[in-house]
Amino acid sequence: MATKPISEADRERVAAAIREAEAKTDGEIYCVVARQSDGYFFPAACMAMIGILLASLAVAFVSEYWWVSIRLPHFILKQLAAVAAVLGLLWLVPALRIHLVPWQMRHRAARDNARRQFLGRNVHRTAGRTGVLIFVSLTERYAEVIADVGIGSRVDPLLWEDTIRDLTAHARQDKLADGFVQAIGSVGAILAEHFPLSPGNENELDDHLIEI
User: Fold this and answer.
1) How many CB atoms lie within 10 A of CB 140?
2) pLDDT tens for each residue of 107-133
3) Strand duo 131-137 + 28-34: pairing
4) Rounded-to-integer distance, Cα 135 and Cα 209, Å
5) Domain housing 75
6) Is residue 2 in a domain?
7) CA quadruple 75, 76, 78, 82: dihedral positive or negative?
8) Neighbours of 48 (CB within 10 A)
9) Taking a C-beta distance cutoff of 8 angstroms, is the pair 36, 203 a contact?
10) Among 78, 100, 122, residue at a domain's last position
11) Predicted TM-score of the model (pTM)
12) In Å, what is the CA distance from 161 to each residue of 158, 166, 183, 188, 193?
């Protein structure tokens, strides 16, 4: 996904898109981009330990087949050395961890992070329960749109799928700001259709992109 930093001009474009969308609806749009949703040290270490165990079993069977004698203390010491080396490498080079973690676990971590942001940023605390979170986690290549219950009761969740797909495609092309602007426009159009702007509507959430 996107690797280059989001510029100040891009942040202002996203903020302007939020203001423009919210000018036509009672809904509130909140945008969050996370570089990574988890540290993954323990899951990566667990997968590495499983790999070392399987490799050890393979070495043991091959040694037995070829009648190669390995003293048990030496074998265990070599296993411990391999474990220490792998754990040290994972600790010193965090970028390696994600490659050892199954994609299902990555997406679960990103999905959980999206829900933490939805609750932690008070997107669920708007007066009409019409808040929408547009969330991207870059390392996990994950995007999601979470709508509050006031919207979910009237808008089919499947309507967000095109928005998520387009946002992910833009992020893969390193055009994250363009993706957010387009996503905000799409979400805003749906909100304007179902929750048009009413007199005296107040802006309840910040109109800018949050980076974590």
Assistant:
1) 24
2) 999 999 999 999 999 999 999 999 999
3) parallel
4) 10
5) 41-100
6) no
7) positive
8) 20
9) no
10) 100
11) 0.87
12) 5, 9, 11, 15, 17
pLDDT for 156-209, tens place per residue? 988 999 999 999 999 999 999 999 999 999 999 999 999 999 998 899 999 999
Strands of the sheet containing 209-211, edge to edge, are: 142-147, 131-137, 28-34, 209-211
Q: Do 28 and 115 sit in the same domain of this protein?
A: yes
Q: Are residues 147 and 189 in the same domain?
A: yes
- What is d(CA 152, CA 132) in angstroms, rounded to the nearest whole number? 10
The token pair at 147 is 């709508």
Residue 87 resides in a domain: yes
Q: How many domains does the chain have?
A: 2
Which tokens hold the place of 143? 């995007």
Kindly report the CA angle at 161 between 158 and 164, in degrees rounded to 5? 150
Strand-pair partners of 145: 134
DSSP run (H or E) holding 131: strand 131-137
Long-range CB contacts (within 8 A, 24+) of 193-196: 194/151, 194/154, 194/155, 195/25, 195/26, 195/27, 195/128, 195/130, 195/150, 195/151, 196/24, 196/25, 196/26
